[in-house]
Amino acid sequence: MNENMLMFGVAYYPEYMPYERMDQDFAMMKKAGINTIRVAESTWSTLEPLDGVFDFHYIDQILEKAQAAELDVIVGTPTYAIPSWLAKKDPSIMVTNAHGQEKYGHRQIFDLLNPTFRFHAERVIRKLISHTAGHPNVIGFQIDNETKHYDNRGNEIQRQFLEYLKEKFETPEKLNQTFCLPYWSNSIHRWEDFPDISGCINGGLAGEFEKFQRKTASDYLAWQADLVREYMREDQFITHNLDFEWRKFGADIAQDGYSYGVQPDINHYEAAKCLTRLGADIYHPSQDDLTGAEIAFGGDSIRSLKQENYLILECQAQAFKQWTPYPGQLRLQAYSHLASGADGISYWNWHSIHNSFETYWKGLLSHDLAENPTYLEACRIGEEWRKIGHQLTGLRKNNKIALLIDNATLTAFKWFPIDRDLSYNDVVRWMYDSLYEMNLECDVVDVNGLEPDRYHMIVTPALYCASEELLTKLENFVTDGGVLVSTFKSFVANEYSTVYADTQPHRLHPCFGMSYNQFVEPGRTRLLGAKVKYFAELLKPESAQSLADYEHKYWGGYAGITRNTYGRGAAYYIGCYTEKHILKNLLSQAADDAGIQRLPEKYQWPLIVRSGQNRDGKTLHYILNYSEETQNVPCIWRKAKDLITGEVFHNGDTLDIADWDLKILEEANM
Amino acid sequence: MNENMLMFGVAYYPEYMPYERMDQDFAMMKKAGINTIRVAESTWSTLEPLDGVFDFHYIDQILEKAQAAELDVIVGTPTYAIPSWLAKKDPSIMVTNAHGQEKYGHRQIFDLLNPTFRFHAERVIRKLISHTAGHPNVIGFQIDNETKHYDNRGNEIQRQFLEYLKEKFETPEKLNQTFCLPYWSNSIHRWEDFPDISGCINGGLAGEFEKFQRKTASDYLAWQADLVREYMREDQFITHNLDFEWRKFGADIAQDGYSYGVQPDINHYEAAKCLTRLGADIYHPSQDDLTGAEIAFGGDSIRSLKQENYLILECQAQAFKQWTPYPGQLRLQAYSHLASGADGISYWNWHSIHNSFETYWKGLLSHDLAENPTYLEACRIGEEWRKIGHQLTGLRKNNKIALLIDNATLTAFKWFPIDRDLSYNDVVRWMYDSLYEMNLECDVVDVNGLEPDRYHMIVTPALYCASEELLTKLENFVTDGGVLVSTFKSFVANEYSTVYADTQPHRLHPCFGMSYNQFVEPGRTRLLGAKVKYFAELLKPESAQSLADYEHKYWGGYAGITRNTYGRGAAYYIGCYTEKHILKNLLSQAADDAGIQRLPEKYQWPLIVRSGQNRDGKTLHYILNYSEETQNVPCIWRKAKDLITGEVFHNGDTLDIADWDLKILEEANM
Amino acid sequence: MNENMLMFGVAYYPEYMPYERMDQDFAMMKKAGINTIRVAESTWSTLEPLDGVFDFHYIDQILEKAQAAELDVIVGTPTYAIPSWLAKKDPSIMVTNAHGQEKYGHRQIFDLLNPTFRFHAERVIRKLISHTAGHPNVIGFQIDNETKHYDNRGNEIQRQFLEYLKEKFETPEKLNQTFCLPYWSNSIHRWEDFPDISGCINGGLAGEFEKFQRKTASDYLAWQADLVREYMREDQFITHNLDFEWRKFGADIAQDGYSYGVQPDINHYEAAKCLTRLGADIYHPSQDDLTGAEIAFGGDSIRSLKQENYLILECQAQAFKQWTPYPGQLRLQAYSHLASGADGISYWNWHSIHNSFETYWKGLLSHDLAENPTYLEACRIGEEWRKIGHQLTGLRKNNKIALLIDNATLTAFKWFPIDRDLSYNDVVRWMYDSLYEMNLECDVVDVNGLEPDRYHMIVTPALYCASEELLTKLENFVTDGGVLVSTFKSFVANEYSTVYADTQPHRLHPCFGMSYNQFVEPGRTRLLGAKVKYFAELLKPESAQSLADYEHKYWGGYAGITRNTYGRGAAYYIGCYTEKHILKNLLSQAADDAGIQRLPEKYQWPLIVRSGQNRDGKTLHYILNYSEETQNVPCIWRKAKDLITGEVFHNGDTLDIADWDLKILEEANM
After folding, report:
1. Closest chain C CA to residue B89
2. Are residues A174 and A187 in contact, defined by beta-carbon separation less than 8 angstroms?
3. I need a surface site. Which of A570, B54, B214, B435 has the fewest CB within 10 A?
4. How many CB atoms lie within 10 A of CB C286?
5. Which residues of B touch A81 (CB under 8 A)?
6. Closest residue by Cα to residue A444 from A588, A296, A337, A575
7. DSSP alpha helix (H) spans, A373-467
8. Domains (ranges, CATH) in chain A?
9. Among C residues 7-46, those touching chain A with beta carbons less than 8 Å apart
10. What is the pTM of this model?
């Protein structure tokens, strides 16, 4: 793929088609400006119809026609769904999870560690990659698909986990002490007595196992990457579609849920190490509920893994009835991905599927396989990207705010919830969305990848698990002039979910200039007039200033928000969950402390601004209207050109942005 | 049973009685006018206390005393609940369903295909029928009881299913193509690789298995019928109590739910073939929630199976606390069954049970086994039926409207729901209840039994699965002058749930004069001022007229209801779910198009009119007041006599119908 | 323990501590006035780290330091949580319940009847008790912990249950008849055919099994008591912490639920027989939801088991965020326990736990292990008890009202619920809480322990199962001048849940002077203007007077509340569930009939008065303010002294009781 070109792609499954129509499909793709197809990731039973019998006729046909149509191709290893003959051959391949052993049928329900699986997966990967790597239109490989640990708790992973524990803790006594195993008589005194982890009631130990489960998933991806690397060309890439916590509303059907927050079942930071091109899948609410927040959150998360641009390998075309886009929304979404640092997008999928399971996760084409309003809007995007795509690739960010996320914390809150109606990702999104709506761009950084020097301000939503090492980093960050903004439930426990046995917030209480040792159900408590919800810590300021005390007969003597200067920096703490406008006021003040420039008031939700430098060093501002009303704002730049229309604006000129429309302003050089 | 007599019966379980009181029971029945008892269907462990040891003393006593009391007897084969010794003898008898293998205890949880079960069932059936068939008071036999497939997914049914697939599809490739099995690598390339169906994620294939499951249930009934036929007399009948989708409100207790819609677990049309007398079980809400709709829907469904009258083999007496009838309701219900074509009813059950499971599914007698208000109301019914029953039997209908129902569609929507809160039966009932409340009587017709020539108007609520053959029928129906009324989600897929890959509605879009290729969540959309709910197709009229466009900023350009003339007929289409009054307006117009006469406006809900011809060729009108207010309407017939009171009315006379009361008007001959 | 001293204790788990700090803990306890620690009940894996290897170094250290600190010690047998080596040694130890066999991890999930378990439990108990019984600071032993039957349905318990049935019923025919087993063909005709109880659908038989399950739990406690008795000194006691139905709100996390009502899984009356000191665990809502009702209900239940005082072995310190007490609440709770007859309390637990499972079930100390407001309030309690404790121990009650409770009924309603939203304990608490809020103190008496002579008034909330023997007792009670107050669903069935087959309420209908044979969903029914909810029996007064008829078009002819004089007494019956104020009016009248003196109107909720005689024969009145407003009432006693402040009040003086505060008035001798 040309680095000056935006990827405009689709997942393409001719094997799912009710009849052969590849020529017609490619012609319709070309009309829409589609330049890339992603193929083969679910084709194992097609490529290897019987054990050891390979048939690449199908893939050859795609590549031949793609070459003729000048389409780039990303080839996926076909391992996320196994053929039935393989499950028949060795039934132990099916994963054993909390519900017992799975039965064949669904994707992603086998044991990644199973030797039979690995043998056959390796064979089909080697066959496919060696067969396709030489083809000129193949630009890269996607290894597996949305890989996770599938809650594997079979014998093999438990055996390996025990070895891991032995190596890490050396003696049972150390293990007992780390996780408080004597509780309910769970301590062990020789390794042989280590029980089946499935019955575990120790939140810390179970969290350690979940961490190990995540590790098996990223190790598996690294293993695939090594295989692919043996065959691929230097100009090809290895990517993977990392995805996010899938938030369901309740129904156990395909048409339910969206990309919500931190992924619990694989660690993105570890998984990304083996990739040469970052990739992600992002799905989100639409129609009246389209906000762009998931696009931004997902993009900021993926980009921050390596401070690199990325590909959106899957995003929605029409999808479900509730996502069929309003006119303009498909285009707004596409540009929003670019505004976060994507170098292109790929729709899932080209065509709607006519049976099976995800029949109503509709593609660009409806089931009639003809043109439709959404397809026609894609044509407009394709046309624009052909013209200006080279100016939009490689957008670089220099964000001064880091929002810290942590898998261990996510797991810990499953065992020790803040409130039954408030999950870790709810707090992460409460914080992230507040920043997003204020047009304060941030990196979303895994705690293991934090480089504090890059930032002026670090934000920790409910960062429950924090190692001493991380705490040292954060303390030094403030001492050296940084601004730290933390919420309730930050710095409570160590990396094993063990609550620190001294003053809270552990180690950083001098930095925050306050401490607490009680927390309560808010009940009728208010803060700055707004209802407090879910949880409230009773903060006792020492050197800190209370920015707001609780309003309550008995908790009124405690602070809910504090600010402290410490070293050359400042530390804010909000001890409770409340309405977003209160959090935003706090963030405004913190951003000012951190010397981060904020846009004028008019530039705020539902008008979203995302900025960066393109490859030519030009500063671009994406101004995105996430509403059904036209928005008018004054141009605040000396001189800027809308890359889409060519129109030029000077400071004070009015920018009219129609419903679900956008502008991309390129600042003129001084 | 005398065909000039209405059956007035009870299910009678002396084996459940806390003490012997058959004489007393029969005396109380006689007082109430009860003329029929249904016995023995749950008595296997009583009749065959040990393997091969039979004891018919119990049944002999019933028959002897019934003869003395001049009660007709329907003998049930005792196979729906097996004795524990049989489950002990061959544990493989217990069915394996989605939850694993069932444990002995509940009824209807064994494998209908199990050879041990069949051997013992055959033996006890032969013994019982040969023992009782000669008795003069035995008027017929009920085979089994509310038979269904019990979600059987054991080895034997899976083996038979594979044979069925081989025969039907011949090659794995054809199977793959029919159901899109390559999806998620599920294709098979030799029959040996066909996996356990329990893990199946392919909606189409799973639907085919469910169809096969239903077939095992109707085949099993046919097998029982063949056995009974070897012994029964010519004047005896074979019946079965077909029942309906049981809609629960949430609690997993006996006192919850009612007969709601199309039965998912056996196909009535197939099952009815082996019966010589149609039978049904109908239960419904009562007290303030009594509407008669379930009585009418169930009756119209059963009668339409063969255009024959039927017996209500079970209906509620007192039942649950929420069903204990208001004064008048028991009687209103009884006549309502007749008004749909029943030749009598039988209460479940005679007496309340004093322990076990359905203790609070109360019978005519409460636990005190004494008279009570409900029993006394039954006495009134019995008295009236003794007098006028001969004028009410054999009511014939000549309905000009057919409402089409389909099991394959019901199954398909489990996999591909319209909305998580809108099931297939919800749409069926939305349509049926609208017709019912408008006093537009209809047949409820299985798609496999449709004879279009009988009708002027065909109604298809969400008829998702439609074979090309059915579509041809429907197109010809309209061409020939019929009126077709279809809703959203009709004609989307073929009989294998595979969505048609061309313009929607498939094949009939010229007939409807419109098409669509997008559908959406309604959100704030309105239609004719009313809220649209659950689902909306964006209809694009071509030759059709839009009867209403959506009211919405973005979907406003699309129609929500269309009407088209086609050939000599007309076709209506409503693309969304909305309030019933809008649907009723559409149905009014369609009925007018179809030349179907409607009653004056005053004759409408809660006043229900159901009509037909009795054996004497007289036209009867049941006028039923489903409310707690007296209703007054003018007589619209030249001259008519109330069969109950003998009162005569002329055109324009006022009919006063008290709360929960009724009249049966016999039109005078011209 | 000195009988003149109140126990002020904590559960203490040094084995859970993140670091060794016993000296510091004991010092902090002493400061707070803590005089007793409860230890060892979850320490099996610590005391016996490997099979047969015992290490009492840990327990020795505690005893040694406790002696130095002058702390009393209650030693718990460590059997409620087994070590993993034991589950490894014999996997059959893990209980098989409705969900299959449990996996090791959780506490209380093994088979109490398993011989391997019993062997090892006996060994460790003998070792521990023989090791500690001689220590001067050990005042008693707690056997096991919150023991229940764990829904054991494994092979051994089923074998024993069958033996029990054989012995009790002698023939299968008697069994069939008792439980109506012919229903659904469940009758058996030789014992060998008795099926696995897990599939049982017979509510009566399943109830008998549940009774048997409860028996295994109390038998097991008696077995432990026998072992302990072999070693203990005469001045030591055997206790156990009986607990209550744990009412959850929905989340399956530790921080959810509270002690609500009658315990379903062990029978307190049977279990208490082997104890020499009654004990209980009581947890309850707090903050705005603190009412004291659970403290009173639990206390009245436990005290009534033997008409003895008791120890609260567990109650909440800080516990969950929603229970962290308001200032004053911890102290109010402590005194409320005493006011019901407790001789002291013990917090669960001393310190919050830093990992594992109950991490947020916080102790007196927060995770920082430092002082906090709750700890400081405990110090105040300790200080006061040191001064006046000797005047508060051994409080004796002479309640004239008995509220009858029954385990069989509780089980029966699981099968035959009154309403899906109204459980047995809901009715018990509706009745109990009404009495409580009226300051009418009562005993809460198991039906098997009823001595009618003690009482003037007996109250039966929904006493569904009632043996003929009990009914005789109650009838005689009324005949002899007692007042009986019963609700709907009382006296319906016998002790096997078999509904009586004659006039309801069985046998007592002459006593109540009314009968009914229908009951209904209330719908829009009202009674005395208030909405009737869940359930309504249609009462037909004979000799009784209707105190209120239903307000409803059709049920208006029936009574909802009746009163009858019978013999020298009176019998009230309320046939439906409605608002508490209506029940309270009925109870007022009944109490007057019974000659029970009521406090003046001002002394009512939220002001709670609980009274008794202390060891010196002095009458004490606890006046407890369960609200955040100061309450003012006139002193109604001639002369009384507040034991806490020493202040003296005369008749008519104003008592000011601050929010969540209390007074303990000792009446002056005449």
Report:
1. C193
2. no
3. B54
4. 23
5. 184-186
6. A296
7. 373-392, 407-415, 424-437
8. 7-147+236-392 (3.20.20.80), 401-593 (3.40.50.880), 607-667 (2.60.40.1180)
9. 13, 15-16, 18-19, 42-46
10. 0.97
